[in-house]
């Protein structure tokens, strides 16, 4: 789940221009002219302060006054006229001296036209548009030898070249403006062993590509996250996960890896070969080497029956332990400000137990309440429906939710109505669904968003602690007491433990289980002011959960969703927290040995895991 979002680059020119980006230049030139204008207004204001009747002074040289007074007025007029000419000249000079790219030198500059950024400057951002950098170094090697050459060259030059993946991590963990390497062109299946049920792939292959390639061999992956577009190297390195109390996070499916390291070249690690480094690097955040190849343990391809139904807190408490133990996959979708909990259970399709598929309501009936709310809200907020939005009946539920939230995203009453409509939608969407596991386990997460997901221990499978439900109960109370405009859903999932030392679900207890809880705020608009307000509200929401709940439940954020605080004291507290949970000293020691010049690092890694010899 590294971050990569940029128009495609042809294989023949992987480092060529990606696009024409003008964001920086749009800011600079108006500031220059604006500064000149402010100075001009300031000088004229000073003139009026010194002379309470500036109009009469300007007319005085034309009157038949004495020569002495006329001379003084002429001098003042010439002085202020000189100021004006000087400031105007400064503004024009600033404008014309603004650096343009070489191919634009011949063009005639026009006031308030913006110079483009250089053609070799790439803009790389995550999918939600919450983190973005500009860089001139964005490499896409096509082979292991090209990757090795790029890493060695960067190491020799002490030039950072951070691994970055598909563009799906919310926090920008793979971004740095000094340079990045992306393995999108290294996406081959190298070997499939049907008998051992293993597959060896290049790390740039996407989950969806790999699943399609495994079909003909009757294999698939053990578990999946909500989406399928992550690169394998990225989804493993950040400790991504699916759901199922008997199933570990996805990094546990890795049985060996090939790492390209700056100091030691290409090395292979596995459970048998250098196991200490293997378990440290398996969830290594891209800091111990660029993952070039991965061997994964697969399972037989299988169909699942998904059962979705609506429950409530009391029913959940009665059945929680049983549901965790009996279901291969289970998750809860909590809807704030309602008593509704959506339960999704998935199990292997049995020939002897075929579920009833008849649903009480059709798709249109399930969506009707949401559509009615959207139409009423358009009228309330006096919003005209655009041509591309006129057919409301064609919108999916998540699209309708985004459009509803865009009308007034931080209005608590408005958000509550949307949550209530969502609860009604799920009540009318209860039923069964059958499909292949890679199809069933996906989830429509909605549009662009801020999300914070934490992981904490929830006892063992034979004896759950019930702290997972306690956490949710406190979270819901916090949302109501603080009047947070919290949209739905709050997604709760479970996994078994991971042996990877840097995984948030890392544990030595074989039966330990962990709960993962994600809070969310959508970014349903491209309006910069509105997005800024949503961002501020989300971070306030997140901060409240952090200060009130995280320490109590030993909760730690998902590596792809952790955000580095700007406040120094908060950053120091976060660093200390991470040291209590993870082997930070061992991780930094491995970084010094494998990447002494920190070329694979970025500001986020340096702040989370500071060391005295940081470049």
Automatic annotation (TrEMBL):
Signal peptide: none annotated. Pathway: Cofactor biosynthesis; L-ascorbate biosynthesis. The keyword Oxidoreductase applies. InterPro entries: ALO_C, FAD-bd_PCMH, FAD-bd_PCMH-like_sf, FAD-bd_PCMH_sub1, FAD-bd_PCMH_sub2, FAD_lactone_oxidase-like, GL_DH, Oxid_FAD_bind_N. GO terms for molecular function: D-arabinono-1,4-lactone oxidase activity; FAD binding; galactonolactone dehydrogenase activity. Residues 1-20 are annotated as: Disordered. Residues 130-301 form the FAD-binding PCMH-type domain. It comes from the Eukaryota. Keywords: Oxidoreductase. Its cofactor is FAD. GO terms for biological process: L-ascorbic acid biosynthetic process. One of its GO terms (cellular component) is membrane. PROSITE patterns: FAD_PCMH (PS51387). This is L-galactono-1,4-lactone dehydrogenase 2, mitochondrial. The gene is LOC105045546.
């Amino acid at each position: 789940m590294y971050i990569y979002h940029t128009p495609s680059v042809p294989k023949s020119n992987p480092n060529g221009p990606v696009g024409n980006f003008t964001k920086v230049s749009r800011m600079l030139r108006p500031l220059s002219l604006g500064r000149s204008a402010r100075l001009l207004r300031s000088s004229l204001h000073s003139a009026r302060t010194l002379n309470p009747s500036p109009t009469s002074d300007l007319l005085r040289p034309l009157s038949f006054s004495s020569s002495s007074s006329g001379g003084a007025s002429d001098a003042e007029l010439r002085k202020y006229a000189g100021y004006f000419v000087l400031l105007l000249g400064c503004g024009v000079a600033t404008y014309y001296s603004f650096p343009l790219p070489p191919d634009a030198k011949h063009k005639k500059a026009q006031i308030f036209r913006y110079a483009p950024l250089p053609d070799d400057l790439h803009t790389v951002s995550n999918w939600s548009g919450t983190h973005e950098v500009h860089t001139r170094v964005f490499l896409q090697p096509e082979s292991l030898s090209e990757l090795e050459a790029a890493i060695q060259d960067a190491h020799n030059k002490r030039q950072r070249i951070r691994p970055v993946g598909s563009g799906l991590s919310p926090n920008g963990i793979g971004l740095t403006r000094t340079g990045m390497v992306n393995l999108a062109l290294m996406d081959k299946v190298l070997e499939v062993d049907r008998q051992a049920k293993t597959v060896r792939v290049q790390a740039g292959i996407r989950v969806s590509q790999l699943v399609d390639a495994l079909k003909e061999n009757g294999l698939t992956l053990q578990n999946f996250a909500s989406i399928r577009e992550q690169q394998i190297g990225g989804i493993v390195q950040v400790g991504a996960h699916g759901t199922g109390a008997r199933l570990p996070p996805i990094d546990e499916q890795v049985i060996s890896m090939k790492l390209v390291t700056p100091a030691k070249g290409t090395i292979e690690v596995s459970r048998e070969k250098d196991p200490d480094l293997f378990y440290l690097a398996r969830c290594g955040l891209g800091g111990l080497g660029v993952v070039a190849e991965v061997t994964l343990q697969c399972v037989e391809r299988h169909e699942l029956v998904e059962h979705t139904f609506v429950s409530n807190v009391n029913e959940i408490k009665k059945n929680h332990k049983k549901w965790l133990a009996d279901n291969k996959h289970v998750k809860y979708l909590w809807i704030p400000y309602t008593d509704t909990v959506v339960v999704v259970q998935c199990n292997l399709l049995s020939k002897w137990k075929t579920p009833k598929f008849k649903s009480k309501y059709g798709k249109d009936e399930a969506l009707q309440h949401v559509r009615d709310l959207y139409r009423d809200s358009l009228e309330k907020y006096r919003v005209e429906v655009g041509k591309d939005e006129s057919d409301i009946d064609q919108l999916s539920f998540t699209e309708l939710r985004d459009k509803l939230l865009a009308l007034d995203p931080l209005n608590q009453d408005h958000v509550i109505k949307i949550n209530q409509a969502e609860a009604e939608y799920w009540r009318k969407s209860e039923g069964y669904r059958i499909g292949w596991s890679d199809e069933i386990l996906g989830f429509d997460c909605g549009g662009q968003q801020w999300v914070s997901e934490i992981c904490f221990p929830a006892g063992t499978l034979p004896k759950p602690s019930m702290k997972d439900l306690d956490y949710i109960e406190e979270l819901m109370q916090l949302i109501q007491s603080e009047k947070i405009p919290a949209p739905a859903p709050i997604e709760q999932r479970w996994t078994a433990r991971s042996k990877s030392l840097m995984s948030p679900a890392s544990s030595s207890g074989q039966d330990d289980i962990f709960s993962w809880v994600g809070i969310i705020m959508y970014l349903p608009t491209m309006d910069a002011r509105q997005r800024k307000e949503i961002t501020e509200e989300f971070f306030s929401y997140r901060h409240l959960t952090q200060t009130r709940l995280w320490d109590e439940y030993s909760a730690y954020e998902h590596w792809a969703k952790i955000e580095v605080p700007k406040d120094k004291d908060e950053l120091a507290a976060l660093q200390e927290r991470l040291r209590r949970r993870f082997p930070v000293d061992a991780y930094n020691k491995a970084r010094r040995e494998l990447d002494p010049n920190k070329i694979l690092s970025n500001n986020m890694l340096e702040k989370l895991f500071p060391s005295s010899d940081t470049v």
